[in-house]
Amino acid sequence: MSIRCTQANSRPNRAARPRASHASRYPLIRAYSTDRDQMVFPGGPRASLSYHNSNALVRGGDRSIVLQKTSFINEAGHCVVVRMMVHGGPIDIVVLGAPGPRDDIADVIRIRRWLRCSLQ
Predict the structure, then answer these.
(1) Which residues pair with 65 in a beta bridge?
(2) Is residue 1 part of a domain?
Protein backbone atom coordinates (compact mmCIF):
# COMPACT_ATOMS: atom_id res chain seq x y z
CA MET A 1 0.00 0.00 0.00
CA SER A 2 1.24 3.51 -0.71
CA ILE A 3 -0.07 7.02 -0.45
CA ARG A 4 -0.14 8.82 -3.77
CA CYS A 5 -0.29 12.55 -4.07
CA THR A 6 -0.27 14.86 -7.03
CA GLN A 7 1.52 18.12 -7.50
CA ALA A 8 2.01 20.60 -10.31
CA ASN A 9 5.24 18.97 -11.45
CA SER A 10 4.95 15.22 -10.88
CA ARG A 11 8.26 14.28 -12.53
CA PRO A 12 10.23 13.88 -9.23
CA ASN A 13 7.26 12.02 -7.68
CA ARG A 14 7.11 9.43 -10.49
CA ALA A 15 10.79 8.63 -10.05
CA ALA A 16 10.85 8.26 -6.25
CA ARG A 17 8.80 5.09 -5.75
CA PRO A 18 10.51 2.90 -8.39
CA ARG A 19 13.89 3.89 -6.94
CA ALA A 20 12.76 2.93 -3.44
CA SER A 21 11.48 -0.42 -4.70
CA HIS A 22 14.70 -1.09 -6.58
CA ALA A 23 16.95 -0.05 -3.68
CA SER A 24 15.02 -2.22 -1.21
CA ARG A 25 16.25 -5.35 -3.03
CA TYR A 26 19.79 -4.74 -1.79
CA PRO A 27 20.41 -5.60 1.88
CA LEU A 28 23.52 -3.41 2.08
CA ILE A 29 21.63 -0.32 0.85
CA ARG A 30 18.84 -1.02 3.36
CA ALA A 31 21.37 -1.44 6.17
CA TYR A 32 23.37 1.71 5.38
CA SER A 33 20.27 3.86 4.89
CA THR A 34 18.93 2.88 8.33
CA ASP A 35 22.19 3.00 10.34
CA ARG A 36 22.37 5.84 12.84
CA ASP A 37 26.02 6.41 12.05
CA GLN A 38 29.07 4.73 10.56
CA MET A 39 32.79 5.05 11.07
CA VAL A 40 34.94 4.40 8.00
CA PHE A 41 38.70 4.21 7.67
CA PRO A 42 39.63 5.35 4.14
CA GLY A 43 43.36 5.69 4.83
CA GLY A 44 43.83 2.84 7.27
CA PRO A 45 43.18 2.66 11.01
CA ARG A 46 44.71 6.09 11.74
CA ALA A 47 42.42 8.11 9.44
CA SER A 48 38.76 7.84 10.28
CA LEU A 49 35.61 9.56 9.02
CA SER A 50 32.37 9.56 10.93
CA TYR A 51 29.06 9.66 9.02
CA HIS A 52 25.74 10.41 10.70
CA ASN A 53 22.32 9.72 9.22
CA SER A 54 20.53 12.93 8.19
CA ASN A 55 17.10 11.43 8.94
CA ALA A 56 16.10 12.34 12.50
CA LEU A 57 13.71 9.35 12.70
CA VAL A 58 16.56 6.93 12.04
CA ARG A 59 18.91 8.76 14.41
CA GLY A 60 16.16 8.57 17.05
CA GLY A 61 15.97 4.79 16.75
CA ASP A 62 12.74 4.28 14.76
CA ARG A 63 13.09 0.56 13.90
CA SER A 64 9.98 0.51 11.68
CA ILE A 65 11.98 2.25 8.91
CA VAL A 66 13.52 -0.34 6.59
CA LEU A 67 14.78 2.02 3.85
CA GLN A 68 15.07 5.79 3.57
CA LYS A 69 16.68 8.61 1.62
CA THR A 70 16.68 12.30 2.45
CA SER A 71 17.70 14.93 -0.08
CA PHE A 72 17.29 18.43 -1.42
CA ILE A 73 16.70 19.17 -5.09
CA ASN A 74 15.85 22.53 -6.58
CA GLU A 75 12.73 21.20 -8.34
CA ALA A 76 11.16 19.80 -5.16
CA GLY A 77 12.95 21.32 -2.16
CA HIS A 78 13.54 19.20 0.93
CA CYS A 79 12.49 15.60 0.26
CA VAL A 80 12.38 12.23 1.95
CA VAL A 81 11.48 8.76 0.72
CA VAL A 82 10.75 6.28 3.51
CA ARG A 83 9.74 2.62 3.40
CA MET A 84 8.43 1.62 6.80
CA MET A 85 6.51 -1.25 8.28
CA VAL A 86 3.00 -0.42 9.48
CA HIS A 87 0.95 -3.26 10.98
CA GLY A 88 3.30 -5.82 9.40
CA GLY A 89 3.21 -4.47 5.85
CA PRO A 90 5.58 -2.16 3.95
CA ILE A 91 4.38 1.39 3.28
CA ASP A 92 6.22 3.83 1.00
CA ILE A 93 5.97 7.51 1.93
CA VAL A 94 7.32 10.17 -0.42
CA VAL A 95 7.40 13.77 0.81
CA LEU A 96 8.43 16.44 -1.69
CA GLY A 97 8.61 20.19 -1.39
CA ALA A 98 8.88 20.62 2.36
CA PRO A 99 9.58 24.29 3.10
CA GLY A 100 12.27 23.64 5.70
CA PRO A 101 14.95 21.04 6.41
CA ARG A 102 12.95 19.38 9.22
CA ASP A 103 9.46 19.73 7.77
CA ASP A 104 9.75 16.61 5.60
CA ILE A 105 10.42 14.47 8.69
CA ALA A 106 7.56 16.16 10.58
CA ASP A 107 5.26 15.27 7.66
CA VAL A 108 6.42 11.62 7.77
CA ILE A 109 5.66 11.51 11.49
CA ARG A 110 2.14 12.86 10.91
CA ILE A 111 1.50 10.45 8.01
CA ARG A 112 2.83 7.49 10.03
CA ARG A 113 0.56 8.38 12.97
CA TRP A 114 -2.44 8.66 10.64
CA LEU A 115 -1.65 5.33 8.97
CA ARG A 116 -1.23 3.49 12.26
CA CYS A 117 -4.62 4.74 13.41
CA SER A 118 -6.39 4.24 10.09
CA LEU A 119 -5.08 0.81 9.04
CA GLN A 120 -6.03 -1.10 12.18
Answers:
(1) 84
(2) no
Run of H or E residues at 93:
strand 89-98
Whether 83 contacts 94, CB under 8 Å:
no
Q: Read off the CATH number of the domain in which 54 is found.
A: 3.40.710.10
Amino acid 7: pLDDT: 42
* Structure confidence by residue, pLDDT tens digits, 17-71: 566 667 778 888 888 889 999 888 988 888 899 989 989 999 998 999 999 988 8
Number of structural domains the chain divides into: 1
Rounded Cα gap, residues 29 and 34, in angstroms: 9
**Other Cβ atoms within 10 Å of 115 Cβ, number:** 17
3-state secondary structure of 86: strand
Three-state DSSP state, 28: helix
Which residue from 109, 107, 98 is spatially nearest to 64, judged by alpha carbons?
109
The whole-model pTM stands at 0.74
**Is 3 among the domain residues?**
no
The domain of 79 spans 11-118
